[in-house]
Amino acid sequence: RRGKIFAGIGVDAFGSILTTIIGFAAIPFYFNYITNDQFGTWLVVSGIIALITMADIGTDQYMTTVIADNKIFNGPGVSKYITASLVIKFIMALFFGLIGIIQWFCH
To answer: What is the 3-state secondary structure (H, E, C) of the chain?
Structure first.
């Protein structure tokens, strides 16, 4: 089991490194097709997407694993797990929304 975990981490790390290298290598080619302003917009949108992706703390995967158990899925406690997951997601959205509002009004 431990070997599978390390293999998964290794494959994930390799994919992340490869994606980063390809992304940097492709930047000069972008300027053949888009302007500096369009590239800046693309960077901002990519940054927002990356921030949202990093904010995913695994609640969906956890819920899938927990609810897949028949005892929990058919039991009275399933609403507790769903409510907790939604509360966590709401707090994260509120946090990032407040950061966005602060940034908007500070500039």
So the answer is: CHHHHHHHHHHHHHHHHHHHHHHHHHHHHHCCCCCHHHHHHHHHHHHHHHHHHHCCCCHHHHHHHHHCCHHHHCCCCHHHHHHHHHHHHHHHHHHHHHHHHHHHHHC
Whole-model pTM: value is 0.49
* d(C-alpha 22, C-alpha 40), whole Å: 18
CA distance 92 to 107: 23
> HSE-up of 33 (CA within 13 Å, CB side)?
6
Q: What's the distance, CA 38 to chain centroid?
A: 24
Residue 45: predicted pLDDT:
84
Reported as a single tens digit per residue, the pLDDT across 4-37 is 888 888 888 898 899 989 988 988 888 888 888 8
- Residue that the structure tokens 């990519």 belong to: 46
